[in-house]
């Protein structure tokens, strides 16, 4: 399982103390590629909220929600859309991180509800009095929109599925343009997904549920977004990207990219 990088540095420091007989040891170098991530107070409180389901909290060491939301820049009072929220793992954290003056729109595509033939699981979050700032939106993917301009549109481990048959497949050019329009100038579009082999394009979206990150970057920037950077916190070089993300040997430990795109400040 992945561990927060600051915790790893602390463990290495304790190991150094145990093996040095005299005097304080020099601080250990950080692991190769490691970047210490400062978690803002609003996000730290949201992640540690004791009312979160235990089944969600046990996934934190693999999903690192604090580091991810810090990279996205989630602030109190923000307006956020959680695109394809599933059971609401991130929806709950967003709701607490943005606070009562913020708003979270859990956007569930009609394509999914027709397939599932049941109400979206995230409806239970919106009905919970502890999450009064959550609203579920049911609509098709190309018609993505919210009742107000957004600070952040977020989707985790879903982008590849929008290219798959059971989702239409969706017209990603239209979806990304709709997301662009929904954001405030300077707003962020954050995409997390399972990495496919470099150069594989869309080959593995259906079979392995992975996508070549270069495709995502190309499609999203074509809608007018500027690629602002990547967080390495969910990278895992041990994943050879050759098996399905549901394979027991790799499930929960896939190499994932976290891409941050921004709508230019002067865009409408």
Kindly report the spatial arrangement of strands forming the biggest sheet.
Answer: 3-2-1-4-5-7-6
Discrete helix count:
10
Q: Major sheet, described briefly?
A: 7 strands, mixed
CATH class of the largest domain: Alpha Beta
Which homologous superfamily in CATH is the superfamily of the largest domain?
Answer: Vaccinia Virus protein VP39
Radius of gyration of CA atoms, rounded to a whole number: 19 Å
Walk me through this protein's architecture.
GO terms for molecular function: methyltransferase activity. This is Methyltransferase. Keywords: Methyltransferase, Signal, Transferase. InterPro entries: S-AdoMet-dep_MeTrfase_Alr7345, SAM-dependent_MTases_sf. One of its GO terms (biological process) is methylation. With 268 residues, this protein is α/β, with parallel strands linked by helices. It folds into two domains: 36 residues, no CATH class; 224 residues, 3-Layer(aba) Sandwich (Rossmann fold), CATH 3.40.50.150. It has ten helices and seven strands. It has a seven-stranded mixed β-sheet with strand order 3-2-1-4-5-7-6. α6 links the parallel β1 and β2. It is globular and about 45 Å long. The N terminus is likely disordered.
